[in-house]
Amino acid sequence: MTTSVTVSANRKRIISLDVSQLSYDETTREILDLGSSHTPSYVCYANVHMTIEGHWSPAFAEIVNNANIVAPDGVPLAKAFKSLYGVSQERVAGMDMLPSLIADCEKEGLSIYFFGTTNETLDAMRKRIEKDHPNLRIAGMFSPPFGSLNAANNEKYAQMINDSGANLVMVALGCPKQETWMSQNYKKINAVLLGVGGAFDVYAGVRKRAPFWMQKLALEWLYRLAQEPKRMFKRYFVTNSTYIWLLSKQIMAKK
């Protein structure tokens, strides 16, 4: 099984990240092809938070940029393609891709392993999948205990996933932990890994997603802030303002 990374060819630099210029359908097809061939690989869904984390930490930017696909998860990143390069780019959000890939894998006979979050969330996800997609092959579901993501356990987790025969592995450990974990372990796993973060909680019904009109206006962060003001205040106001400043500098530099 090959372990070389073949990244999506056409990428555009947005502040710190080289984001893939692929449509939603093109991204989906690449993921399904990687999964069906059991190619060790990983996919990152980049948003403002991840972009600024990459700016502050070149090591983290390298982790993201080494992914096979760096999808523009957030509306601000998708719109940055037009501001910086004069090209239109579709948003490719992990929140949207989780349910659509479940449907695609059911149709194409591919199996999915769900790795991360809590046992309660995984149980709720299983119930919804069994109701809505009864023919999907669930390769496995596992919530790693807190503090267990060390070298010895990661070997066991990789073997556990490989033994399941999974084509896709949905990883929900939160940013930047999930991206780091995928980068460190993808070569051992014969599947495509997708860092989908909080998409598990939304799919399971544990947390509500922003209304569609807020998604279109790039206001999902405001909805999350209203849900968890203490935890999200610093993250959103610091990262959002930093993103606007750095993107403006990049736009001016290009002009």
UniProtKB/TrEMBL annotation:
GO terms for molecular function: hexosyltransferase activity. NCBIfam families: wecG_tagA_cpsF. It comes from Xanthocytophaga agilis. Keywords: Glycosyltransferase, Transferase. CDD domains: Glyco_transf_WecG_TagA. This is WecB/TagA/CpsF family glycosyltransferase. It comes from the Bacteria. The keyword Glycosyltransferase applies. The keyword Signal does not apply.
